[in-house]
């Protein structure tokens, strides 16, 4: 390396530019994909990596996908060795070579500058189908990976700029929906956008300057991360949480245990003691679990920290193989991304006492559904992931209420509802209700985010409804005197009036048109004693009918006339005094 | 003498451009009066009359047109001071407005709160009616239920009502029926039906836009009524036109009905002005940037047409009406420099504003700002800021930068100031990339038109960062938007959703939709006094490949539209998709789908003339003021450079950088990479020296 003088300002420029390139990649992907999971909900991530596979920047619509792109890049580099050429395009989804979920299919494109490999552009999106037993990929009956998906270890679909038609056809012959091939073309397009822009950047400043400043950027980010960690008191913190039902054995319960060691500027998350893997699909992969750890921790520190390799250097994550968070080959793992809320839960319980100002009460855990059938209006198959129904509330934090209707912590508001009218164009369903769920938020000085209720009429016969998630046994916990949130629920009300309460991992076949789908996504936990919440905030929630008059009295000690919305101040003060005395 | 006046009400100043029949023009600036902006407006008119030693009444007799950009609606949204608004919507979806599809823009920030809705939940009332995805009635609207909900609005003292029902883009009947009842029962209320303002698919977009319109409607109406009355009181008989976010103007009576079209009224004048100033050099395309005290606006113009978006936002609230694609970021003279925990230098978005202002204003500001850096580097003259009206304190600027930036970074003062200058330039360059690169346009192909008080001082470095070879600084750069307003045509946008595969279009229905939009456009323009031969129509379609979700707007000719020429529509779509996203599926024969039909009706107005200057030769020496030490960014050292009084520069004058061009409200810093030539309109045109042969001829055209 020539000795390039570091221009500190250029480091800032570089960081900004890398970020904006990944944003451009993200826009291109959103605008061109077909599956609503990608183009509406933005269940994808785009990123740039250096020649060694180290993260340069990412745009993380769904962060749970994002922290495996780097490790897979490193794997691909090792796998192909010197057999990497300009014009290559590589697919990957394999969870046993650092992939996070079978459905999250990645594209990698090596970037060459004057015949020298200098970087990689990559993106990964949740594909509407990936083969296996069940359309859409979620198969609670799976016991091994082949029942879930087509495994794609690193494979070149383009070699030196030429499409390998045989490979392409082999892959897509094993996938049900033709839109998946179209969406993978869009992923390649996004990588081309990243490649083109990064080359312009290198051309502008020169490779030496780029490399030297990149290293400085990593170091600067590492320094920032280290100072964030050193703000946490040294110590060993333990937390745990439970995972309910493995999709096979009713009543089964698994535990996650994390031991977090903070030692000056380094932090270690050790999951030793976590329950063994299940024999179903409720299993994490190393990268899905480590992503969950990373994204949860990132919410506890300065949100403006650049996302690159320097950020993860002072973080160490140990997840023993053979546990529910890191299943061994060839276990089924499609559910793994959705262990993130449980994992986050354990981390928040561990660090809550150490940094009470930075840790939220618990978020609503994910409970999601997927409906699929033939749309009788046009004879075409459809797959819909019920993003609008799954978005419960976040946990409150000191100084701030939880965010209403935000959804799973693994997306943190990066994944969007389907637009209602587009939903009715793209599926045969009729939306009847999608509103805040009254009294769903955990009470607190700062209340949890509100959950939502969703109801729609299924418009196709022989509909398959798949559910996956948790949060129907244990509600989101409150923190520092705040109360817990509410439970998740999915129900089918058949045309004959029969009601079926879905399990948290379920596969319900042959649902007829006219069936009502009903879902409650719970609220988040509250923070601080509810009787300290300002009366006018309680009144505002009552006025808006998201907190009932009864709950205002029971939980918050605020007495409100249901007709006039007048607060009885004397009664309120008296009631709050009692609550305070009881708490003491 | 006949006059036309452009008025741009800004945060600090209200700018006026007075143009005369003979092509001459004059600038006025009056301090804005935010409580009632019409006070400053009338003050400006009085000053113009005084300068001519006549009464306002006598002066206004000669004024044929006043074009007015206003921020009253923008401010009402930003400060939540709009009308008390009620929303009537389909049962079951009343929270869509507040949910905003569940986005949290800052994913890792657990203290990032949702934005307050413009209508609280207790005023979002459901109606148990329902249309299906095709617009067929599933559940009819019951008058009694509407009456019940209207009674609630009345009791709560609601001033404005928005009505937005599911799938109403496909059938407006339920909304119309509800609207009739509301008009009958609440005669004084301001009413907006979603089907009137935006009959296009996507519920959240539509409900948000409808509510925005209702929320600001009464505010704009009150303001315009007051202004019209004040103008009437001084016997003004000319035309008053209001600037819209889409870059066109509109009669006040129509603006009152469609108030949301003025939400970005202010910056919308900029791109229009850009077209005018670059056209003299034969450009069809340009990028305009406007850097003021706190914000920086960037926009891209292609084929003399500013880029329009229907994916806009104001204060994180969706507005899906067509508006100029102006990107605004927090970068201006007042932007504060700071060091983050990782030790990286950052600029803004926090601004010191006008008070306490930059440290060098000596008004109590202690944070180092962009203006402080500009002063320390010599780009500003401490004795000639705002023409000397605001004396700058160099010592204060140096101290602020030394303490807050230089010491923590271990740099010397000038290195630190240069760092601040460079970082803010990169931020602004990123905004320019957003309007260009993100739209698939290469910024190097566009001249950069630079406006605003602080803009021309930073233009060269933004341009270098993006490799832009030509920069245009208009002589009136400080009142750029007001000039643009005078150049704007009347413009009305219409949209109709018709979701169908191209091959399945029913020609009769297709034509009927366009004809209906045409009829409405002609009616509005006639009301605004535009004869039919001055009306133009721009047809376009929002198209996509089958099963895609997002559409691409594709312009089509009137012939293609009226002949319902489906092949020509598809032929126009493929290359556009390819250009924007790098591929098309023409070869594979993938079917194309129509989502929306759009029509823009333009009423051509008579534009003011601008005088062209006679050729004055290369020699700029008569404008020479003095020499000053200025820090040259790319040389990393101070250099004595020539300072010119730019008002004295004339067509043909040439100056080689490095140089400083000073005028009362703006300073232009010409870096050594650039030279300046003055064009026929008096615009200072900077071009890369290395490409002189390519550009000099064109500038002098």
Low-confidence stretches of chain B: none
Mean pLDDT of chain B: 91
The helix fraction of chain A, in percent, is 25-40%
Oligomeric organization of the protein chains = heterodimer
Number of helices of chain B: 19
Structural class based on helices, strands and sheet pairing of chain B: alpha+beta
Q: What is the class of the domain at 82-213 in chain B in the CATH system?
A: Alpha Beta
Q: Which parts of chain A are unreliable, with pLDDT below 50 for 5 consecutive residues or more?
A: none
Give the termini separation of chain A.
65 Å
* Beta fraction of chain A: 15-25%
**How big is the Rg of chain B?**
26 Å
What does this entry look like structurally?
- The complex is a heterodimer of chains A (584) and B (701).
- Chain A is 30% helix and 22% strand.
- Chain A is an alpha+beta fold.
- In chain A, a hairpin with a 2-residue loop joins strand 6 and strand 7 (162-163).
- Chain A is globular.
- Chain A starts with 7 loop residues before the first helix and ends with a helix.
- The mean pLDDT of chain A is 95.
- Among the domains of chain B are: 82-213, Rossmann fold; 490-603, no CATH class.
- Chain B is globular and about 80 Å long.
- The chains are: A alpha+beta (584), B alpha+beta (701).
- Chains A and B meet through helix 1, helix 6, helix 7, helix 12 and strand 14 of A and helix 4, helix 8 and helix 13 of B.
